[in-house]
Amino acid sequence: MSLPETNPAKWDDLTVRFVSSAAMTFVGAIAVILGGVWFQMLVVFVTAVMVWELWMMIRPKEPTKGMLMAALVASVLSGQLAYGHLWGLALFLIVPVVGATQLRTEAKTFFIFALGIQLAGWGLVHFRIDYGFTWLLWLMLVVIVTDIFGYFAGKAFGGPKFWPKISPKKTWSGTAAGWVGAAIVGFIFTIFTNAGLWVIIMSMILSFAGQMGDIAESALKRRMGVKDSSTLIPGHGGLFDRFDALLGASLFLILVADVFDVPGVVF
User: What's the chief localization of this chain (predicted)?
Assistant: First the structure.
């Protein structure tokens, strides 16, 4: 009888996941560092693919319409980033409206998620432009560290589920650990930047916003009866699965930056 550790399939999956993660990290890091058109192109591509994944979860038998939705997203977002102003965000209604009119069911679901995905993508680009590499790095580290702390704490401590009907694997211990990890990231940034202690609180709130993005996508997948948003990324699922928390965090920052101007005070 062979031991579990010698099962080659297990290690093959681990290798695929590691290679996929390394590739995504490398491409993303380069784009974030370079900024400008390079980061914009990556965001436009990822945003368009996520809207395609959204469509395919709702209407998997109509892939052509899904590709047309993705192309329309890329066109609208590219044009808005190049020439648009804040009032031009109304253009982001085009894709949700067009998509919703093509759906007999789940039209509201598509409308809400498609609009949120586009606004989050726009927010990431403008956060990079308005606040620079350092604070986009802060945003990404908060999301990443929240996920890492939450994963290991949930595995180690277990306990009551955070929202069992929607995401049965998430626990309160993992959720709280994510907030702690985010607070640590915020504290580190108070040491190496001019940010005040408010950034620690902001980090924890941002962590929660990211967790809600994850929960929202989990609810969507459960509603659609699918395990992953797609199979584009070997060993990981789809781009929507990988960036759901970042979408939630980005939408939160749009609110605090453009409505309350919190970043201007904290940073």
Answer: membrane
Tens-place pLDDT, residues 88-142: 778 899 999 999 999 989 999 999 999 999 999 999 998 898 888 998 999 999 9
Specify whether the CB–CB gap between 56 and 241 falls below 8 A: no
Radius of gyration of the chain (CA): 19
d(CA 6, CA 240): 33
For the chain, domain boundaries: 4-266
CA atoms within 13 A on the CB side of 120: 26
Instruction: Tell me the backbone φ, ψ of residue 60, rounded to 5 degrees.
Output: -65, -20
Least Cα distance to 169 among 200, 117, 211, 197 occurs for 211
> What gap in Å lies between CA 206 and CA 199, rounded to an integer?
10
CA 224/CA 166 separation, integer angstroms: 12
Sign of CA dihedral 127, 130, 131, 134: positive
Task: Say how far apart CA 80 and CA 199 lie, in whole Å.
Answer: 30
11 contacts 19 by C-beta, under 8 angstroms: no
The DSSP 8-state label assigned to residue 6 in this structure reads G
Taking the alpha carbons of 211, 213, 216, 220 in that order, is the dihedral positive or negative? negative
Q: Do 251 and 116 meet the contact criterion of CB atoms below 8 Å apart?
A: yes
> How far is C-alpha 261 from the geometric centre of its chain's CA atoms?
22
What are the CB-based long-range contacts (under 8 Å, 24+) for 91-94? Answer: 92/118, 92/119, 92/122
Unique residue bearing structure tokens 């350092």: 134
In the chain, what is the greatest distance between 2 CA atoms, to the nearest angstrom? 67
167 — pLDDT class (breaks 50, 70, 90): confident
SS3 233: strand
